[in-house]
């Protein structure tokens, strides 16, 4: 069987597209897929590179850990080669700091796009930025050795890579606050009970379980899936009456399309 050539393979990120399914892989297992600004730019580029045919994105990490979070080099005075250090960013003023963090966040937000479904396949450590990357996906399949942890607060920082919004949505304010402030590990059983994970499986079954979920996700008609995702994404911010209106509008679009009366 011919192996599909990557559309992107740089800075610890690989993107492979097979018809309707894209696989984004973190490819630095020797460093437990630790993250850096270069990796974040590559992730954002992967999102921009998706062909229109892609319906599902699978996000995974090579090796024993999904991602151990931010590379510790970020906390040194030198930082990363060719990158401003955290100290430089702090000294550069509020506008520079804000724009730089916004650029970093772009690596995470594209996974929530309305026209795709994203699935994180998570094993081992998913710490800090790794936890937030998994939280950026719509769904999470985890191995039974998974260890989620939000360590930023313990380091004197805050989670700033878009993970706080989905975390509160999944587990509620009080549990999210406790997870972030204590920095404790959330293991597979709790992840499933609390809604952080859709399913937990033995590590050697993670790939198969993810493949089965993806097959189920692409079975339904694409337009109905997109309408449903957008409808659910906005539900928490609407009243019941507003959601009823949104449901009617979405269903009207679907019925018109099915009857050949779409715009």
- List the secondary-structure elements in sequence, H or E: EEEHEHHEEHEEHHEHEHHH
Which sheet architecture does the biggest sheet show? Answer: 7 strands, mixed
Which structural class best describes the helix and strand composition? Answer: alpha/beta
Please mark out the parts with pLDDT under 50 across 5 or more consecutive residues, or reply none: none
Which outline best applies? globular
Quickly count the helices: 10
Strand content: 15-25%
Radius of gyration: 19 Å
- Residue-averaged pLDDT: 95
Query: What is the CA–CA distance across the termini?
Result: 42 Å
Spatial arrangement of strands, main beta sheet = 1-2-3-4-5-7-10
Q: Helical content, roughly?
A: 40-55%
Number of strands: 10
What is the strand and helix layout of this fold?
Blueprint: E1 8-10, E2 13-18, E3 21-26, H1 37-48, E4 56-61, H2 86-91, H3 94-109, E5 117-122, E6 125-127, H4 129-135, E7 139-143, E8 147-149, H5 164-171, H6 173-182, E9 186-187, H7 188-194, E10 199-201, H8 206-217, H9 222-233, H10 240-258
Parallel strand pairs: 3-4, 4-5, 5-7, 6-8, 7-10
Antiparallel strand pairs: 1-2, 2-3, 8-9
Helix pairs in contact: 1-3, 5-6, 9-10
General description of the model:
- α1 links the parallel β3 (about 20-25) and β4.
- Helices cover about 40% and strands about 15% of the residues.
- The strands form two sheets. The protein has a seven-stranded mixed β-sheet with strand order 1-2-3-4-5-7-10, sandwiched between helices. Strands 6-8-9 form a three-stranded mixed β-sheet.
- The model has no long low-confidence stretch (mean pLDDT about 95).
- With about 260 residues, it is α/β, with parallel strands linked by helices.
